[in-house]
Write a structure and sequence with these properties.
6 helices; Alpha-Beta Plaits; alpha+beta; 4-stranded antiparallel sheet; 40% helix
Protein backbone atom coordinates (compact mmCIF):
# COMPACT_ATOMS: atom_id res chain seq x y z
CA UNK A 1 0.00 0.00 0.00
CA UNK A 2 1.39 3.39 -0.94
CA UNK A 3 1.94 6.06 1.71
CA UNK A 4 -0.89 8.25 0.33
CA UNK A 5 -3.33 5.35 0.79
CA UNK A 6 -1.93 4.72 4.29
CA UNK A 7 -2.43 8.37 5.25
CA UNK A 8 -6.05 8.23 4.11
CA UNK A 9 -6.62 5.02 6.11
CA UNK A 10 -4.71 6.08 9.22
CA UNK A 11 -5.46 9.52 10.64
CA UNK A 12 -2.68 11.25 12.56
CA UNK A 13 -3.85 12.60 15.89
CA UNK A 14 -2.43 15.73 17.52
CA UNK A 15 0.10 13.69 19.54
CA UNK A 16 1.35 11.92 16.39
CA UNK A 17 1.86 15.28 14.72
CA UNK A 18 3.54 16.76 17.80
CA UNK A 19 5.94 13.79 18.02
CA UNK A 20 6.76 13.75 14.30
CA UNK A 21 7.32 17.50 14.20
CA UNK A 22 9.69 17.29 17.17
CA UNK A 23 11.65 14.29 15.87
CA UNK A 24 12.31 16.05 12.57
CA UNK A 25 14.46 18.45 14.57
CA UNK A 26 16.72 15.60 15.68
CA UNK A 27 17.41 13.48 18.73
CA UNK A 28 19.53 14.54 21.66
CA UNK A 29 22.87 12.72 21.77
CA UNK A 30 22.46 11.12 25.17
CA UNK A 31 21.73 7.79 26.81
CA UNK A 32 17.91 8.26 26.86
CA UNK A 33 16.92 10.53 23.94
CA UNK A 34 13.25 9.48 23.99
CA UNK A 35 12.99 10.34 27.66
CA UNK A 36 14.26 13.86 26.88
CA UNK A 37 11.87 14.26 23.94
CA UNK A 38 8.92 12.91 25.96
CA UNK A 39 9.66 15.35 28.79
CA UNK A 40 9.87 18.23 26.31
CA UNK A 41 6.46 17.22 24.88
CA UNK A 42 4.90 16.72 28.35
CA UNK A 43 4.23 13.03 27.85
CA UNK A 44 5.40 9.70 29.20
CA UNK A 45 8.39 8.08 27.44
CA UNK A 46 6.52 4.75 27.10
CA UNK A 47 3.60 6.57 25.45
CA UNK A 48 5.98 8.28 23.00
CA UNK A 49 7.59 4.97 22.06
CA UNK A 50 4.16 3.30 21.74
CA UNK A 51 3.02 6.05 19.36
CA UNK A 52 6.18 5.64 17.25
CA UNK A 53 5.73 1.86 17.14
CA UNK A 54 2.13 2.32 15.97
CA UNK A 55 3.21 4.72 13.21
CA UNK A 56 5.85 2.20 12.11
CA UNK A 57 3.37 -0.70 12.26
CA UNK A 58 0.91 1.28 10.10
CA UNK A 59 3.70 1.93 7.59
CA UNK A 60 3.73 5.71 8.05
CA UNK A 61 7.29 5.53 9.35
CA UNK A 62 9.39 3.23 7.22
CA UNK A 63 12.80 4.07 8.55
CA UNK A 64 14.04 5.90 11.60
CA UNK A 65 17.71 6.67 11.79
CA UNK A 66 20.51 9.14 11.69
CA UNK A 67 21.70 11.11 8.72
CA UNK A 68 25.40 10.93 7.97
CA UNK A 69 27.81 11.62 5.12
CA UNK A 70 27.94 8.17 3.53
CA UNK A 71 31.17 8.87 1.66
CA UNK A 72 33.00 9.78 4.87
CA UNK A 73 32.12 6.42 6.42
CA UNK A 74 32.98 4.42 3.29
CA UNK A 75 29.46 3.70 2.04
CA UNK A 76 28.57 4.11 -1.63
CA UNK A 77 25.43 6.18 -2.17
CA UNK A 78 23.67 7.54 -5.21
CA UNK A 79 20.40 8.97 -6.40
CA UNK A 80 18.68 6.48 -8.71
CA UNK A 81 15.84 6.93 -11.23
CA UNK A 82 13.67 4.02 -12.34
CA UNK A 83 11.58 4.03 -15.51
CA UNK A 84 8.37 2.03 -15.26
CA UNK A 85 6.40 0.90 -18.30
CA UNK A 86 3.40 3.25 -18.49
CA UNK A 87 1.17 0.35 -19.54
CA UNK A 88 1.02 -1.16 -16.05
CA UNK A 89 -1.93 -0.59 -13.75
CA UNK A 90 -1.88 1.06 -10.31
CA UNK A 91 -1.70 -2.30 -8.52
CA UNK A 92 1.44 -3.30 -10.44
CA UNK A 93 2.97 0.14 -9.87
CA UNK A 94 2.27 -0.15 -6.13
CA UNK A 95 3.93 -3.59 -6.18
CA UNK A 96 7.11 -2.02 -7.60
CA UNK A 97 7.03 0.59 -4.81
CA UNK A 98 6.61 -2.21 -2.24
CA UNK A 99 9.64 -4.01 -3.71
CA UNK A 100 11.74 -0.85 -3.37
CA UNK A 101 10.44 -0.27 0.17
CA UNK A 102 11.62 -3.76 1.13
CA UNK A 103 15.28 -2.76 0.72
CA UNK A 104 16.96 -1.36 3.83
CA UNK A 105 19.61 0.04 1.44
CA UNK A 106 17.00 2.42 -0.02
CA UNK A 107 16.66 5.32 2.38
CA UNK A 108 13.67 6.90 0.65
CA UNK A 109 11.87 6.95 -2.66
CA UNK A 110 9.35 9.17 -4.31
CA UNK A 111 7.24 9.38 -7.45
CA UNK A 112 7.96 12.12 -9.96
CA UNK A 113 6.07 13.39 -12.98
CA UNK A 114 8.96 12.47 -15.26
CA UNK A 115 9.93 9.89 -17.86
CA UNK A 116 11.70 8.11 -14.98
CA UNK A 117 8.84 8.00 -12.48
CA UNK A 118 10.45 6.60 -9.31
CA UNK A 119 13.50 8.25 -7.76
CA UNK A 120 15.31 6.89 -4.71
CA UNK A 121 18.59 6.90 -2.84
CA UNK A 122 20.50 3.63 -2.83
CA UNK A 123 23.36 2.84 -0.45
CA UNK A 124 25.78 -0.10 -0.52
CA UNK A 125 28.89 -1.15 1.37
CA UNK A 126 31.08 -1.06 -1.78
CA UNK A 127 30.98 -0.89 -5.59
CA UNK A 128 30.51 -4.65 -5.96
CA UNK A 129 27.49 -4.60 -3.63
CA UNK A 130 26.10 -1.55 -5.45
CA UNK A 131 26.24 -3.38 -8.80
CA UNK A 132 24.65 -6.47 -7.23
CA UNK A 133 21.78 -4.38 -5.81
CA UNK A 134 21.16 -2.62 -9.12
CA UNK A 135 20.94 -5.97 -10.95
CA UNK A 136 18.65 -7.39 -8.27
CA UNK A 137 16.33 -4.35 -8.32
CA UNK A 138 16.06 -4.54 -12.11
CA UNK A 139 15.28 -8.26 -11.93
CA UNK A 140 12.71 -7.97 -9.12
CA UNK A 141 10.90 -4.91 -10.53
CA UNK A 142 11.09 -6.12 -14.14
CA UNK A 143 12.33 -2.61 -15.02
CA UNK A 144 15.60 -2.52 -16.93
CA UNK A 145 15.84 1.27 -17.22
CA UNK A 146 17.53 2.39 -14.01
CA UNK A 147 19.75 5.45 -13.96
CA UNK A 148 22.51 6.06 -11.44
CA UNK A 149 22.70 9.83 -10.97
CA UNK A 150 26.08 10.62 -9.45
CA UNK A 151 26.35 13.84 -7.47
CA UNK A 152 28.62 16.42 -9.05
CA UNK A 153 28.33 18.77 -6.09
CA UNK A 154 26.61 18.10 -2.78
CA UNK A 155 24.27 20.63 -1.24
CA UNK A 156 22.96 20.01 2.24
CA UNK A 157 19.48 21.30 2.86
CA UNK A 158 17.36 20.86 5.91
CA UNK A 159 13.82 19.72 5.26
CA UNK A 160 11.14 20.22 7.88
CA UNK A 161 7.60 19.14 7.09
CA UNK A 162 5.26 20.72 9.64
CA UNK A 163 2.35 18.39 10.32
Amino acid sequence: MQTKDKLEKFKLDEYDKLILNELQLGLPLCENPFEIIAHKLNMDEDYLIEKLNNLKKEGLIRRFGGIFDSNKVGIKSSLMALKVDKKIDDKEFAHIIDILNSYPQITHNYIRDHEYQIWFTLMAKDDKDFIRLIKEIKRRTLCDKLLKLEAIKKHKTKVYLKL
